[in-house]
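name: query_chain
kind: protein
chains: 1
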Amino acid sequence: MNKSKGTLKEILLASTKLGFTSFGGPVAHLAYFKDEYIDRRKWLDEKTYADIIALCQFLPGPASSQVGIAIGMLRGGLLGGIVSFLGFTVPSILVLIFFALIYQTYDLSDAGFIQSLKVVAAAVVLHALIGLGKKLTPDLTRIGLALAAAFIMLLFPSAWMQVAIILVAGLLGSKLFAKIANTKVEPFPVTFSKKAGAASLAILASLLAFLPLIARTTDHMLVQLFDTFFRVGSLVFGGGHVVLPMIEREVVPTGWIDSGEFLAGYGMAQAVPGPLFTFASYLGTMIEGVTGAVVATIGIFLPSFLFLIAALPFLNELRKRSKFQGVLMGVNASVVGILLAAFYDPVITSAITSNADFALATVLFACLHFFKIPAWAVVLIGVGAGFILNLI
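structure:
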């Protein structure tokens, strides 16, 4: 692992590249992060990366965005986390704001390149599954735990079931893997203290308690907007697509936006790189212009920062305990199973709709897995090849 502290410039450049090329949703993002931060730049070892993924699976909010923020924090402190977040999210924020401003005259929801991007995502996710599976499920016990998680998720797909699987896997892991856990791990280079973590948790709790009261006593739309999106970012588990129905219940029945506008933005949000939570930027623009986009985006992502600042200082101590390492081993195995279930639904079910899609996905997977072509280049190859296939 490269222990040297990173400059904000290098963090910004790396995260911005990911922000322009990370198509495919939260499952694919973990693969892009591994390719860029772990395999290429050596900022973290794979064990630390796996522990960060497990931690972020426990936290509400957008798990993949939190992984990116955490890596930025470990590399460059609190400012590194902010810079990492901006680089990863601003490209999709700008696209979705622009789309919201012109969507009535330039509807991109049915654009042909969307299907090509879904096929790229299928190849990326399979590549991630194989890589993570080798590291996180190296024995039959953890393979069985992963398969059980996938089986349950496919039969009962829901955000709450995912949370239940992770919690049960962690409990089983504390019993099954504590004796084989490696507690001699390199500490996280966290630059903020446990007092800062406790203060962050207090701020989060205070905002959750008082923002609804303030919103009810004022007619100011921006206050109500911030309250709505802050609650969504604080309370939704599962991230990604799970956040969309929760937001829909907040903004459509209130009359802030109609269902047609909501669905148009939903289609576009799936086509852009970066986190799906930037759908908030589109909704904020539709409701209250560009100012609304800024307020909604800050509202939905702020809880992620507060949760991470609260959790990371304590994680170093916990990682030294065999039972907690067992918990993480169980959680990591279940994450592989959850990713396996997600690889089928929604990735395969929405991406592979023809023989041509399967052929293209096979070639793109080979580019990643065997020829070691960078993920961003595979995105370009996939879009170009998809365009050619459409002409045949």
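note: The chain is about 80% helix and 0% strand.
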